[in-house]
Amino acid sequence: MMVTKDDHVTYEEATKSKTWRDAMKKEMEAIEKNNTWELTKLPTSIAKMDTIRILLSLSAQHSWSIYQLDVKIAFLHGELKEEVYIQQPIGFVKLGEEEKVYRLRKVLYGLKQAPRAWYNKIETYFLH
What we know:
The protein is mainly alpha-helical. The chain has one domain. It is about 35% helix and about 10% strand. A three-stranded antiparallel beta sheet has the order 1-3-2, with no helix packed on it.
């Protein structure tokens, strides 16, 4: 990936450009139109970064292998079977509902569930 001096690195930088603001708004509209998520209260007992760090430390101490896969394919049509919650995106927080999070109905880029959800969707299509 190439980054130029004209690329915006942070949300604050991007919002200074009408083109970027329009692009972000269009992306959010597409996500909502696709019924990708619903705004809800966050349930208890979720994994936190501290928990992930502990697991990584234990893996290092015990010489356990850790695998990571970075797939750059659009998986946006896969449906989730698990409950996945995300924070409201900066700049798109719903007024009066700031404490709420989104519960995903469909996968987004970067979710570990994305490849499996996409595979299940495409497999069902081919079997029919």
